[in-house]
UniProtKB/TrEMBL annotation:
Residues binding L-glutamate: 14-18, 50, 177, 195
Motif ('KMSKS' region): 233-237
GO terms for MF: ATP binding; glutamate-tRNA ligase activity; zinc ion binding
Protein family membership: Belongs to the class-I aminoacyl-tRNA synthetase family. GluQ subfamily.
InterPro entries assigned: Glu-Q_tRNA(Asp)_Synthase, Glu/Gln-tRNA-synth, Glu/Gln-tRNA-synth_Ib_cat-dom, GluQ/Sye, Rossmann-like_a/b/a_fold
Protein name: Glutamyl-Q tRNA(Asp) synthetase
Motif 'HIGH' region in this chain: 17-27
Organism of this sequence: Pseudidiomarina salinarum
Gene transcribed to yield this protein: gluQ
Co-factor(s): Zn(2+)
Positions bound to ATP: 236
GO biological process assignments: glutamyl-tRNA aminoacylation; tRNA modification
Cofactor note: Binds 1 zinc ion per subunit.
Length: 286
């Protein structure tokens, strides 16, 4: 369960898109929710480009994303952080976990793991693999099985998932999202993580990692996902259409409606976000 220590610190939130293409409506919902929550708390709102998975990153997509945010009236309170520039920091964190005997090497392929069932079973825990052709996993001896979500309430995470020894460093020599996102949030002083519900269960892994580096834990709030006509999550992989620069006001109104907020006067995007912030505060703040 997340510590109450975050409440004693100035609010710092963030929006952290992956630059695999332009923002779509699902991305806009996450951006709006995180922004309104930060502004309703008179807090800071940061933007981070999560390009740690370099094969997925599309050249120039970050520039498009930042312009889309500006078009929709967003402003951020610190320099943009790029994960691709922080490999040394992630290695430092990985070394710290290894020194605490909380990692081990795994040579299992995805095919081998899938053949054993839906979850990794820890078969390499006792094998003392030394080969460089391996991933590095977190030794998940004390899994987080429950936590409180500010929007979705108490969450009980399925034990086989929460207990899985998740990957920190991939066989293709890339640091994983799970490691990078936690280190970034800690280093940037993030107190509140507002994002899509597709990351709800992964929060149990991330809380576990937070505990290895600091006593301070963030508050989590996950928003319902926007789905396409087939019931699939709107995503770049599912070819969700990009936000349109000539439909900014309509897209903002649609995002407000999706989040359960009333329609606001169709003014400038900045003014629309300000009006929506008041509705968010009335709805979600004590």
């Amino acid at each position: 369960m997340a510590s109450s220590s975050a409440s004693s610190l100035p609010y710092r939130g963030r929006f952290a898109p992956t630059p695999s293409g332009p923002l779509h409506f699902g991305s806009l919902i996450a951006a709006v929710a995180s922004y309104l929550d930060a502004r309703a708390h008179q807090g800071a709102w940061l933007v981070r480009i999560e390009d740690i998975d370099s094969p997925r990153a599309v050249a120039g997509a970050d520039v498009i994303i930042l312009q889309q945010l500006r078009d929709h009236g967003f402003s951020w309170d610190d320099d943009i952080l790029y994960q691709s520039q922080r490999h040394e920091r992630y290695q430092q964190a990985l070394d710290q976990l290894t020194a605490s005997n909380l990692t081990y090497r795994c040579t299992c392929s995805r095919k081998q793991i899938k053949a054993r069932g839906p979850y990794y079973t820890g078969v390499c825990r006792q094998r003392q693999r030394r080969t460089e052709d391996s991933s590095i996993r977190f030794l998940n001896n004390q899994p987080v099985l429950e936590f409180d979500d500010a929007l979705m309430g108490r969450q009980d995470i399925e034990a086989p998932f929460a207990s899985e020894d998740f990957v920190l460093y991939r066989r293709d020599k890339l640091y994983t999202y799970q490691l990078a996102v936690v280190i970034d949030d800690i280093d940037q002083g993030i107190t509140d993580i507002v994002r899509g519900a597709d990351l709800l269960t992964a929060s149990s892994w991330q809380i576990n990692l937070w505990r290895q580096f600091t006593e301070r834990l963030p508050r989590f709030a996950h928003v319902t996902l926007a789905l396409d006509a087939n019931g699939n999550k709107l995503s770049k992989q599912n070819h969700a259409p990009a936000l349109q620069a000539d439909q900014v006001r309509e897209q903002l109104q649609a995002a407000f409606r999706f989040l359960g907020l009333p329609e606001v006067p169709s003014a400038s995007p900045v003014q629309m976000l300000e009006a929506a912030t008041e509705h968010w505060a009335a709805t979600h703040l004590p």
